[in-house]
Write a structure and sequence with these properties.
alpha/beta, Rossmann fold, Alpha-Beta Plaits, 2 domains, six-stranded mixed sheet, four-stranded antiparallel sheet, 12 helices, 14 strands, 38% helix, elongated
């Protein structure tokens, strides 16, 4: 059963196209990921699905309900964990959840049991009476997940839910999320730019500049670019098919990888049709003959970042660091503008 359907979804902020004709489906029970760099359109897409933003055009449905015309019905099925922490540091963990439960008109009897059950699920029951300001970053994230689960959502949206956490806390958070998916039968829809998080998903949609550039199971996406490749870093010279590949029939492609300005080396992915360990001696020999200076040569298996590179010619993190902030500022401006118009309209009435 399809629980999320998007077809030709578009969101514009004046001249900025944040989501550009995005189409995908999510099946019930899946862990689905939007993987992409900052500013790719991930948060905008998730905000549309959660009825926080109105799409410019296209169709988006959650459990068959249109996000634009039936937002109230959509909200009954979803929970969301935002990038930013929305907890009150001056309240305890229990008090925070009680506040959100009361905000949603949950009855007192049901409220107490539900809060304790969720706190137990995320291993915070023994810290429920501690002020949130004394929680670690990982504990705050787990409490955020508990908040998103308060009203038994069928779909839990996670917008960069592990942003800023160390590897150990990220792994722990994802252990909880996988448990939720299996034991609570909750569909998980997440955005991330972490490769290892996307690897555990049932389906990954790679997004860049607002467009879906590839979508499939992680294994299938990686299989599209081969089983393994040779990664070469040069301190001198340019690696081209003319310089090294002429006559080496096992080299199927050479992909230059854009480097940050901090690096003085050039990196290349060399796709080969024979085992990589057999290809390396020939590559080094031919490159040395052509006066190339190798800094390192290694064998790599394809990752989802390699899939991104295959489609875009650059690494997942090689992006304008200000890109995401730019469209976030524009989104905030649009929200404020909308609120101002509404206020003026009420004053006129």
């Amino acid at each position: 059963m399809k629980v999320i359907e998007c077809k030709d979804l578009v969101k514009k902020f004046k001249q900025l196209v944040a989501v550009d004709h995005v189409t995908f489906d999510v099946e019930e029970g899946e862990i689905f990921s939007l993987l992409g760099p900052n500013g790719a359109g991930k948060s905008t897409t998730i905000s549309i699905l959660c009825t926080l933003f109105r799409p410019t055009s296209g169709i988006a449905k959650v459990f068959g309900y249109d996000v634009l015309s039936q937002p109230t019905k959509v909200r009954k099925y979803i929970g969301i964990v935002f990038q930013s922490i929305v907890l009150d540091d001056l309240l305890t963990g229990y008090e925070n959840l009680r506040f959100f439960a009361r905000l949603g008109n949950m009855s007192k009897d049901r409220r107490k049991q539900r809060i304790e059950d969720i706190l137990n699920l995320v291993d915070l029951l023994d810290r429920k009476d501690d002020l949130v300001r004394h929680y670690s970053g990982g504990m705050k994230r787990r409490l955020e997940i508990a908040r998103g689960l308060l009203f038994h959502p069928k779909i839990l949206f996670l917008d960069e839910a592990t942003l800023g956490l160390d590897a150990q806390n990220r792994r722990r958070i994802w252990d909880y999320i996988q448990r939720l998916n299996k034991e609570e039968e909750i569909t998980i829809f997440m955005t991330t730019h972490y490769i290892d998080e996307a690897e555990i998903c049932n389906k990954v949609a790679i997004i860049d500049h607002g467009k879906i550039i590839a979508i499939d199971h992680p294994k299938q996406l990686k299989a599209q670019i081969g089983s393994e490749y040779v990664e070469v870093k040069l301190s001198h010279g340019e690696l081209t098919k003319e310089a090294i590949g002429d006559g080496l029939d096992f080299i199927t492609d050479i992909i230059p990888i854009k480097q940050t300005s901090m690096e003085n080396t050039d990196t290349y992915r060399i796709m080969v049709s024979i085992p990589a360990e057999e290809a390396i001696p020939e590559i080094i020999s031919r490159g040395t003959m052509n006066k190339l200076k190798f800094k390192s040569v290694q064998i790599n298996k394809p990752t989802l970042e390699d899939v991104f590179i295959e489609h875009t010619g650059r690494g997942l993190r090689d992006q304008d660091e200000h890109g995401e902030e730019l469209w976030k500022i524009r989104m905030r401006n649009e929200q404020l503008s909308g609120k101002t118009r509404g206020f003026r309209h009420r004053r006129r009435r």
